[in-house]
Design a protein that fits this description.
Layout lengths: L1 E5 L3 H12 L3 E5 L3 H8 L10 H10 L3 E4 L2 H5 L4 E4 L14 H13 L4 E5 L7 H16 L5 E5 L9 H6 L4 E5 L2 H11 L9 E4 L1 H32 L3 H9 L20 H14 L5 H14 L1 H9 L8 E5 L14 H11 L3 E5 L4 H8 L4 E2 L3 H4 L5 E4 L11 H7 L4 E4 L6 H6 L3 E3 L7
Parallel strand pairs: 1-2, 1-4, 2-3, 4-5, 5-6, 7-8, 9-10, 9-12, 10-11, 12-13, 13-14
Antiparallel strand pairs: 6-7
Helix pairs in contact: 1-3, 5-6, 9-10, 9-11, 9-12, 11-12
């Protein structure tokens, strides 16, 4: 089989490389000439564990190639996957301009049967708009060419995307015809060896499933963060409460870890988009509106704790920040809670010394050189009056108390991910502030 994947961002590049790994011939297309040139030179534009090896291996075996020409990629393709960005507009709605532009280009080039698949995260009704855009161009050309549309949302976790794609727990596909369903089933057959199913459904249900899934996970996060904040007020320990409720299989232990709020490219954008979709249909998603408010408030929590510790006097103080990416095993800085903390600190006149294993280059796109970037975690502690831990990278888990105490001006730790033991911190002479835990 041969497919085209339009868009070489996170979803498109991972999807293309993983399809190629099963023996499918994949052509990835992007209008960004510099990005395509870099990919053809073996340079990977995003940081995802194992992706560089996967791409290079399949390029070497002629199963994966990169081009700026959509026409060349469609010449023998059985399906084209639209995997371009759908950023949030000012009103929270998903910007579909890139998706519909690709659909129009497909319509200008189409001359044989093809399944046009939306892989981008899109609101309900988008596939029908894609279908209309393709048909409009065919009509303008005076051609009658059969094609189908399908919805195939991705469920990839950044930092574990390759494993998620190659060994999916489920594959959701929305189709309108038996022919499209059979083609998609054939395409995904190599991924079903772990026994998990393809779930076929109508297109509207498929499109909504993606948003509902991310909204549910975001809800669990905000719920636990709200409970953690209550824990602090009543003297309870959120880590123990989490264990107590997480042992109930109806609730489960995943996504109930208190922290400094969720970020990334999916949860913030998708929660906004599903709220906007519901509003357009006259239905207010009150729970998700609260989820969003709680998350925005949570992103301020670590800064507020630091400010309270220094009694509103942050001017000239040096604060170390460990972890910049919104989560470990990625360099993604979109909506990262660290950005809120850093910007608030800078506004109050503090200086920030930051370290992240992989995201510092990406962070410069958001905060520039207003932050001092260090080459190791402990370099960032030199002269610091406090440490804010914002991303739970594995290398931060074992804390060198002796080294930190020698380097820091004030031994105060603000743990935005609850990875340290408060009693142990206190025993080594540190002031410790976590999320939903007693400070010491």
């Amino acid at each position: 089989m041969k497919i085209s994947v339009v868009g070489t961002g996170y979803v498109g590049l991972v999807s293309g490389a993983c399809f190629a790994e099963t023996g499918i011939t994949v052509t990835c297309v992007d209008v960004n000439q510099a990005k395509i040139a870099a990919l053809n030179a073996g340079e990977i534009p995003i940081w995802e564990p194992g992706l560089d090896d996967l791409v290079r291996r399949n390029v070497a075996k002629n199963r994966l190639r990169f081009t700026t020409s959509l026409g060349d990629s469609l010449a023998a393709a059985d399906a084209v996957f639209i995997a371009v960005g759908t950023p949030s507009g000012e009103d929270g709605s998903a910007d579909l301009s890139y998706v519909l532009q690709v659909a129009s280009e497909v319509g200008k080039l189409l001359n044989r049967y093809l399944v046009v698949v939306t892989k981008s995260t899109v609101p309900v009704g988008t596939s029908q708009r894609v279908k209309q855009a393709v048909q409009k161009e065919l009509d303008a050309r005076g051609l009658q060419v059969e094609f189908d549309v399908a919805s195939n949302p991705e469920f990839l976790k950044e930092g574990n995307a390759i494993e998620d794609f190659l060994k999916p727990d489920r594959i959701v596909i929305g189709t309108e015809s038996k022919r499209a369903q059979e083609l998609m089933e054939k395409l995904y057959k190599p991924f079903l060896l772990n026994g998990h199913p393809i779930i076929f459904m109508d297109i509207a249900s498929s499109e909504l499933t993606k948003y509902a899934a991310n909204a549910m996970l975001a809800t669990k996060i905000s719920f636990m963060n709200d409970i953690a904040n209550l824990c602090e007020l009543v003297g309870a320990d959120a880590t123990l409460v989490r264990k107590g409720i997480g042992s109930d299989p109806r609730i489960g232990a995943k996504f109930i870890y208190p922290g400094a709020g969720y970020g990334g490219s999916c949860f913030p954008k998708d929660v906004k988009a599903i709220i906007k979709t519901a509003d357009e249909y006259g239905h207010a998603l009150e729970i998700l509106k609260s989820v969003e408010r709680v998350n925005e408030r949570q992103k301020d929590l670590i800064f507020n704790k630091i400010r309270a510790f220094f009694k509103d006097d942050l001017k000239g103080r040096r604060i170390a920040v460990w972890g910049l990416a919104f989560k470990p095993n990625t360099d993604d800085m979109r909506e990262a809670p660290s950005l809120t903390v850093i910007r608030r600190l800078l506004e109050q006149g503090a200086t920030v010394a930051a370290y992240d294993p992989v995201a510092m280059k990406e962070a410069k796109k958001y905060v520039g050189n207003s932050v001092e970037y260090l080459q190791s975690a402990y370099e960032a502690l030199r002269g610091a009056e406090a440490l804010a831990l914002m991303t739970e990278w594995p290398e931060f888990r074992v804390f060198d108390y002796a080294a930190a105490k020698l380097l820091m001006k004030t031994p105060a730790v603000f743990d935005g991910r609850n990875i340290y033991d408060p009693a142990e911190m206190k025993a080594f002479g540190f002031r410790y502030y976590g999320i939903g835990r007693k400070c010491c």
